[in-house]
Amino acid sequence: MFPRSFAAFAASVPLCLLAVSAYAVPGATTPITPQASAPASNATPAEDSAINFTLQEVGGGLGYEWGKGTLHHNGKDYAFEIGGGGIASIGYIAVKGTGTVKDLTRLDQFDGTYWTVKADAAIGSGVGAAVLENQYGVKLDLRMSIKGAHVGASVMRLRFRLLPDKTEKLAAQ
Questions:
Q1: Which residues, including other chains, have CB under 8 Å from residue 1's CB and lie 6 or more apart?
Q2: Burial class (CB in 10 A: 0-12, 13-18, 19+), 114
């Protein structure tokens, strides 16, 4: 079990990946979800895109995450890969997730380095949520199901990279 100070830390982190199983934090009764932000102006916002992905994380002090997914944007699907990590991570988890992509005005703005503050504790299975933002202001609002045993708290840096389309490769040859 984790001391109450860890639970207080995890609850106080504003942008956080939080994977909590029923065994990890006894007595937790309310879900933790990211707060929606108010629109900045009266301009019509661009339609949100969506992603689905799988991800794995392994940690033994330093944590490393890798995975792949699909971006659904303007009626087309684009494959992408994920890589990155942080510090203070112990264990292994497998993640399946979906999410909303906000403020993506051009497809090339999806590629980039996304940052978040992360605190998680999972034993068996759990659920998670994360809000990440890259250097172009593109935001990912993610929901995940998590399996494994893992504990960690760190600043995470994840690189999302669109993979070249096979038809584009053939046309270039």
A1: 26
A2: buried
Q: Give SS3 for 9.
A: helix
- On whether the CB atoms of residues 155 and 117 are closer than 8 A, the answer is yes
**In the numeric block, which tokens belong to residue 46?**
């661009």
Strand pairing of 112-133 and 49-73? unpaired
Contact 53, 28 (CB under 8 A): no
Residue 63, H or E segment? strand 49-73
pLDDT over 70 at 27, yes or no = no
Per-domain residue ranges of the chain = 4-22+48-172
Instruction: Evaluate whether 151 touches 121 at the Cβ level (below 8 Å).
Output: yes
**Residue 4 φ/ψ, nearest 5 degrees:** -60, -30
pLDDT, residue 88, reads: 85
